[in-house]
Structure formats: structure tokens, C-alpha cells
Amino acid sequence: MPGTSIHELAMAEIERLSRRGFQQLSLPEPLESGFEQSTFVQRAARLWVEGLIAIGFFNIYIIADYFIRGGVSWFPLQLRLCIVTPIALLINVSMRWSPNKLYRETSIALASCLIGVTHLYLESNTNATSSAYAQVGLIVTVIFANVVMRLQFTYAFSTSAFLLASDLVFIHQDHFLNASEKLLGITLAVCAILMTVVANYSVGREERLGYLMRLRSEIQTQELSFLNVELQKISYIDNLTGLANRHSYELQFAKFWREAVDAGTCLSAIVIDIDHFKITNDTRGHLYGDRVLVRVASLLLQSLRCKDDFAARFGGEEFVVLLPGATQEGATIVAERIRKLVEVAGSPALPEPGSHPRLSTVSCGVASCWPSDSNCQDDLLDSADKALYQAKAAGRNRVCCGGLTTTVRKRLSAERRVLRGLPKGDSGSWATVD
Length: 434
Fold this sequence. Notes:
It is a single chain. By secondary structure, this protein is α+β, with helices and mostly antiparallel strands. It folds into 2 domains: 4-221, no CATH class; 246-432, Alpha-Beta Plaits (2-Layer Sandwich), CATH 3.30.70. The protein is 65% helix and 9% strand. The longest helix is centred in the middle third of the chain and has 58 residues, at 179-236. It is rod-shaped. The two termini are 51 Å apart.
């Protein structure tokens, strides 16, 4: 059954990620590749929109900060507007092209680190207020990277660790904060980093669980469809011979009949019965009888004209063939080919050495008609069945044709005259199909 190994792998990963405690988020191949393939376009589009909004707010903050401080120095404004913002915009624009995972996550992580380090550099060791304010800016940067951008966990953890290390360096070198203020700043930064990393991990796990559950649902749907197709095949196929069964025959007969009525074409039926089959069963056993049925079914398929011809096991040792578009003459040729093939091919070999199987032959009854509202399928099959009994009564191993006495309106008059041998000048509007 297709997809079973992937299904089992997905089920195992769902169970693993659903457990309590920390679990590794990366999935085994090919699930990780499938996850990335199914989410990278949507993720890149989200990063583009949310990143653009974040850059806009960042620049509003820069300008507001400059005027609030009374325009003391142009350097912070120039550094942020002329270096940090263009780099962030360049990275953000590149998201429009749905880049691969390595570039996407690394570039956002580097941009976050650049923003955080720049903020620490500009605010630390300036005055007491700015040094305290630097911690707030660092926390905002961590929230941006881990919660807003939702870097994948490995990148989020690495970015957070780098920003925390940078904070430790700047706090250590800051001369405006006392020891207790430094400890408070570090504590706030550590708490913010831990909370956002945990949130990032939870979001990452939920994303992967959601993907795995969708994948499981898709695979189950595919497997169910596959099973339904197989069950449908089984319900339409005779298990022994591999031919269509009686139910399939009835559906196909109705379809051929409707098509013949709509197109005004002829439809022929051949009913085939294996001669002396009961004696074969009684003397050689039912297993050998089954082999005879399989042999005849195989030869029957070889005798058909084209893929549109239809053969089915009608019941017991009886078969039926439907020939759309075939006249009685064409159907008789097919029936004779079936009879001759079975006669020449003989019966399946017997397991006992030196034994000679009874010669398998078939009798065939042929009937044809032009389907219309004036006749029905049962008329055609009844005529073929009567012709079969004529063949049996005449000595078996032969083909007989039956007549259909139902009158139907003539279609395609020129063609019908040729088929029935009518004179060219006949102007009758009704005809009897024999």
C-alpha cells in the first residue's frame, strides 16, 4: 500500500512531539524536507509583511527618540537610518523571492543581532538613564526575533545567546550602573530571553505537529481512496477468471445500450457455454473444472476485436460478450473465433501422467439489434440465449444466430439496406431486425 512507511514515520513523530518536556524539533528526513517545502512560501510571505511593519515602527522610534532627546547628536540617527535600516530593508525585500531555509533564518538572525548590538553600543555607557534604557531595547529585540519573526528554534536560541552575551559585555563595561542595577538588568534580560525562547519552542512544535497531522490525514485519505478503488475492482471482477462479474456486466450492458440508442448504432451479444462442463466437473473434480473456466476465459479475451468489446462471466460455465457497433455478421465472426480457439487450444493438462483430458469445446449464441425505445436489453439477451440452446440442440461446438422480432424505427436507411440486403429503391419506414 503506497505511503505506508511515511505514514508510520509521521505517526511516530506525532507521538514523540506530543510528549511532555523538551523534544528535538527537527524531523527525520523526508519529513523535515516536506515540512519546509509545505511552509516556506507562506513563511516567507509572513516575514515580508511583518518585517516591513517592524522596520516601519523601528524608524518611527528612531525619529521620535531623536526629537525627544532634543537633537543632541546626529550620529545615532545616521547609524540607524543609513546603515541598520537599509540592511534590514534589503533582507526583508529578499523574502519576496521565498529564499531557502538557511538564507532566510540566518539573514533574519543576523539582522536581529545587528539591531541589538547597535542599540547596546549607542545607549550603554552614556548616562544612567540610557544604560537602563539599553536593557529595554535589548528585550524588545529579543521579542522581535523570537516571537514576531519566529525564527526557527535553533536560530532563535543562537540569536538569544549572542544578544545575552553582548549584553553581559556592555553591562560589564558600563560605568553608570551600580552592581545591583547591573544584576537587575541582566535578570530582566535573562527572564525575557527564557520566556521568548520557550514561546518560540512551543510555536515551532505546534507548527510541526500541525504539519504532521495534515500529512497523516492526507495519507489516510489517499490510502482510503486506494482501498476504495481496490474494493470497487473486486466488486466488479470475477475472482476465478479475472473477467467482469455479473454486476459489472449489467452496468456495462446498460451503458452500451444508452450509447447505441443515442448514436443509432448496432449492438451485438454472444452467450457462450462450455460443453459437457458438468461431466468434466464430476469426473475430474471441481479444481480441474476451475482450470477449464480460466482457460476458456483467457481464450475468450484473446478473441475480442478491440478494447471496447466487453466480456464477463455470466454464471457457472456461461460467459457473455458485448460487441458495441458490431452487426450480426461481425458478431458471428467473433463467436466463431472463440469457438475455434477453444477447440484448438484444448483442455488444461491433467496432473496424472498419460491421462488425456476430455476435449473442451463451447457453444455460442449470437444476437444483434438496433437499440431503441421499442425494444429492451432483455430482448437481445433472450435472443442470444435461445440461439445458444439451438447450438446445444444441434450437437454443441457450434455457433447459432438468433432473431430479434421486435420492430424498431429504421436508422440510417442506406446502411440498413446494405445490412439487410434490401433493394435500393425500398422506401419502407419500418423494418424488422433479424
